[in-house]
Specification:
34% helix, 9 helices, Transferase(Phosphotransferase), domain 1, 3-stranded antiparallel beta sheet, Phosphorylase Kinase, domain 1, 299 residues
Length: 299
């Protein structure tokens, strides 16, 4: 699967520098990379070495919300529990002199799986190779006692470099709603995640490791079939994910191998105990990638 960097891909010199740089003595801010609902990611560099990094800062409007500050800084703590080549490296968590919390992360040269898929659907084998890498990385998170809670194409970053097998390398990013697997749900716990990818138990505020398996199943279903598992307004999505059985992928893609059809449906099981572990998903996908002929239904 060959890919080219979209052009132009440089950040202009006049890009906004809205972050308070007081307290960022070790880093220089070059410009804005991306803006989310409550935070902004900037391209930065280590002043001493010139190495490029990404700096994720909470927008100043939210600095007075202690829970949001705690959540952003907590991303670093969760990331330190699991070290894996397929997980974003969050190097430190600090606050500027004006109390704005920020994370310093490795700079990734690539694009989200969402951006890649919106441009053109990757070949089926490439989809499975990418999903296998995601499963491998998230399995490391699970082994460290962390549930990501927001696996989706936007949080899968596809690098402009390949692994030893020739497939694009992948990084799982954004621990914004991640949580400890042993953290008990509270009666007033907010429901966190992306509705289109949320497992039934996540709608109840009680995500577990198997919730990430479900979300990866939704991702696979969408990329393989070209349509979401379920769609509609928020109440419709909630009922569908909790109660409605999905249309089997093979019904939409008659040439889909039965093994892949069964795997995706197992990942989308309503009961989290019926879903495969993430390591099993990795093994199954890796086996399919190694045998491309097996991706097509017989006949």
């Amino acid at each position: 699967m060959s890919r080219r960097r979209p052009t132009p891909r440089t950040i202009p010199d006049h890009a906004a520098r809205e972050i308070d740089e007081t307290g960022l003595e070790a880093y220089g801010v070059i410009g804005e990379i991306a803006r989310g609902g409550m935070s902004t990611v900037y391209l930065g560099e280590v002043r001493a070495t010139g190495e490029r990094v990404a700096i994720k800062a909470l927008d100043s409007f939210y600095v007075g919300h202690s829970d949001l500050v705690h959540r952003l800084l907590g991303e670093h703590e969760l990331a330190q529990r699991a070290r894996h080549p397929g997980l974003i490296d969050i190097r430190c968590a600090e606050q500027t002199s004006h109390g704005i919390p920020y994370l310093v992360m490795e700079y990734l040269d690539g694009e989200s799986l969402r951006a890649l898929a919106d441009r053109r659907t990757p070949p089926r084998t490439a989809i499975l190779a990418i999903a296998a890498q995601v499963a491998r990385a998230v399995a490391a998170l699970h082994a460290a006692g962390v549930v990501h809670c927001d696996i989706k194409p936007e949080n899968v970053f596809v690098l402009y470099e390949t692994d030893a097998s020739g497939w694009p390398r992948v990084k799982v990013i954004d621990y914004g709603v991640a949580r400890s697997a042993h953290e008990p749900p509270l009666p007033d716990s907010p429901i966190a995640g992306t509705p289109a990818f949320m497992a039934p138990e996540q709608w109840c505020g009680a995500p577990v490791a198997a919730s990430d398996v479900y979300a990866l199943g939704v991702l696979l279903y969408e990329l393989i079939t070209g349509r979401p598992v379920f769609s509609g307004a928020l109440p419709v999505l909630m009922v569908a994910h909790c109660e409605q059985l999905p249309v089997p992928p093979a019904a939409l893609c008659p040439d889909l191998a039965p093994e892949l059809d069964r795997l995706i449906l197992r990942m989308l099981a309503k009961d989290p105990r019926a879903r495969p572990a993430m390591a099993e998903v990795d093994a199954a996908l890796s086996q399919l990638v190694a045998q491309p002929a097996a991706l097509q239904a017989a006949g």
